[in-house]
Here is the input.
Amino acid sequence: MAQDTFIIMLPPRQLPALQGWRVTPAHLAYRLGPGPHLFRADNTVPRGGLMVVDDRGFGGLGPTGPLCQEILRECQARGFSGAILDFDNRLPPLEQIAGQLDESFARRGWSLYVPEPYGSRAPHARVMIPSALSGGSLQQRLEEALERLGENRVALALEKRAEDFTLPSPTGSGQPLSEQELETLRQRLSPSVFFSGELCARYFTYMSRESGGHFVLFDDGDTLRRKVEVARRLGIQTFLAPWAEAAPYMAQLGIQRRTEQRPGRR
Here is the structure.
């Protein structure tokens, strides 16, 4: 029986926190910048694991070929087994980068993880499907992704989300709530909290004199566990999560401890 693969994204300075857990670290230490070039946060990035590259400093100008070569050289120098393209924007140069890296990584046997909009440009890569939904069914969402992409290309990106939706919500987007904001709201309202089996999330409703009806949707350790279970039942066994969100729930998510090697007797 195949083992789950849990990829935990975290800054290199927090890497000691993963000691003892059977996970793959993904280093939050790289970004695309002017040039374009690959920029590293500092020189403390260790060897092994995966590189995470974000696009917050990318302006879309310049040739992408040399940049891809920089990424390949960095992966080789650091002994990375692959990369996660944490792209929030959708730009033609970013699509070119995803496509070029997809081919180069596949030739080297490295793993590449891309956001869902980039799945068609990187046919060898695993596609990250977000776990948070505001409507519909998580199981159906994953089934459709599997049918479209193939069973070996889908990874579930776990997100511990909390959002406050004003009703009606035509856009399907709510106001993000921090953990403290959610807790303050629950203490003030003392609402009845329900569980949605379709969304695998908890929710409650309330009325505001100023803005009318509200619908609050949120995750906790139990809802994240249930989302992992839905994915597992469909044959998905690769999961990604930020350390800050996964840390309290490692055992609850089914992440195993590494077996300590005991010294043999002489």
About this structure: The chain has six helices and 14 strands. The chain has a mean pLDDT of 93. Residues 162-218 form a domain with the Chitinase A; domain 3 fold (CATH 3.10.50.10).
